[in-house]
Amino acid sequence: MEEQQSPDTAGGAASVKTEEVGKEKPADTAAPDAAEEEDEEALPHSEILDIFEEGLARLVQDPLLCDLPIQVTLEEVNSQIALEYGQAMTVRVLKADGEVMPIVVVQNATVLDLKKAIRRFMELKQQREGGVKHVSWRYVWRTYHLVFQGEKLEDDKMRLKDYGIRNRDEVTFMKRLRKK
């Protein structure tokens, strides 16, 4: 019996040695990966930004995405793609000064979703143009209504479809009447 155990022990030792050798080989192959990572990290931040902006410029040149601004956000790209696939709609919001804001919302959006999309649109616009730093949206929604074909969009939980709003329909900001 002892003779049978000794070959097993010897085989076990041999298998341990091959495992150790096997462990050394992946460590050697890991060294080139580390060198590649160092090369990637060696690029200055400005060059990485340039590469990113070039890729973004090519992306924006796509016929489906050509309507987007140069400093496009991921949210804007996703909403434009959803619009092309029919998963979203554009609601044109008319301000008192005559400016039309194209707001993209999903097909089953609520009035609250539209209000949030208007807020995001205005914040991005102000950020790009360097306009007013802060807008009190609480004041805006207490002072103005959103109106579609003479009907006020008062219920934030109601869907836009329930008001009859479809793709490319126009919604206007209308000043609320003061109660005396």
TrEMBL record:
The name this protein goes by in its record: U11/U12 small nuclear ribonucleoprotein 25 kDa protein
Stretches the record annotates as Disordered: 1-43
Domain annotation Ubiquitin-like: ranges: 87-180
SUPFAM superfamilies found in the cross-reference section: Ubiquitin-like (SSF54236)
PANTHER family: U11/U12 SMALL NUCLEAR RIBONUCLEOPROTEIN 25 KDA PROTEIN, U11_U12 SMALL NUCLEAR RIBONUCLEOPROTEIN 25 KDA PROTEIN
CC annotations in GO: U12-type spliceosomal complex
Keyword Protease recorded: no
Keywords, in A-Z order: Ribonucleoprotein
UniProt GO BP: mRNA splicing, via spliceosome
Coiled coil residues, start to end: none
Keyword Repressor: no
Biased composition (Basic and acidic residues): 17-27
Organism the protein comes from: Lates japonicus
